[in-house]
C-alpha cells in the first residue's frame, strides 16, 4: 500500500466544497434532501439514514460507499 493510500483523509474545509453543488445534490437512494456535515466532511441523508463521504471536495454519491447513521445521529 502506498503512503497516499495509507494516510487518513481529513474532512475538507468549506472552501473545497462548491456551495452551488451542494444545493442541487439529492440522495440517490431517496431523492430527498442532503445536509452538509462540515466537521465530518459528509453529506447526510436523514431519509436513507446514510452519510455520503466527500473526498478531495468531491461528494461520493454511491450508497455502497456511504456509512449508515448510528442511532441518534
Description:
The protein is an alpha+beta fold and 73 residues long. It has one domain (13-68): Single Sheet (N-terminal domain of TfIIb), CATH 2.20.25. 14% of the residues lie in helices and 23% in strands. Strands 1, 2, 3, 4 and 5 form a five-stranded antiparallel sheet that branches. The longest helix is centred in the N-terminal third of the chain and has 6 residues, at 19-24. The N and C termini lie far apart (33 Å). Residues 1-8 have low confidence and may be disordered.
Class per helix and strand makeup? alpha+beta
Order of helices and strands: HHEEEEE
Count of discrete alpha- or pi-helical segments spanning 4 or more residues = 2
Q: Name the poorly predicted regions.
A: 1-8
Largest sheet: 5 strands, antiparallel
Overall average residue pLDDT: 83
Overall morphology: globular
Here the CATH topology equals: N-terminal domain of TfIIb
Name its key features.
alpha+beta; globular; single chain; N-terminal domain of TfIIb; five-stranded antiparallel sheet; 73 residues
Summarize it:
This protein has 73 residues and is of the alpha+beta class. It has helices at residues 3-6, 19-24, and strands spanning 35-37, 42-45, 50-55, 58-59, 67-68. It has a single domain (13-68), classed as Single Sheet (N-terminal domain of TfIIb).
Question: What order do the helices and strands come in, and which of them pair?
Answer:
Elements: H1 3-6, H2 19-24, E1 35-37, E2 42-45, E3 50-55, E4 58-59, E5 67-68
Antiparallel strand pairs: 1-2, 2-3, 3-4, 3-5
Amino acid at each position: 500500500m502506498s503512503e497516499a493510500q495509507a494516510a487518513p483523509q481529513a474532512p475538507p474545509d468549506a472552501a473545497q466544497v462548491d456551495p452551488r453543488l451542494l444545493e442541487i445534490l439529492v440522495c440517490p437512494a431517496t431523492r430527498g434532501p442532503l445536509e452538509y456535515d462540515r466537521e465530518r466532511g459528509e453529506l447526510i441523508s436523514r431519509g436513507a439514514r446514510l452519510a455520503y463521504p466527500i473526498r478531495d471536495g468531491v461528494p461520493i454519491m454511491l450508497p455502497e460507499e456511504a456509512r449508515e447513521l448510528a442511532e441518534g445521529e
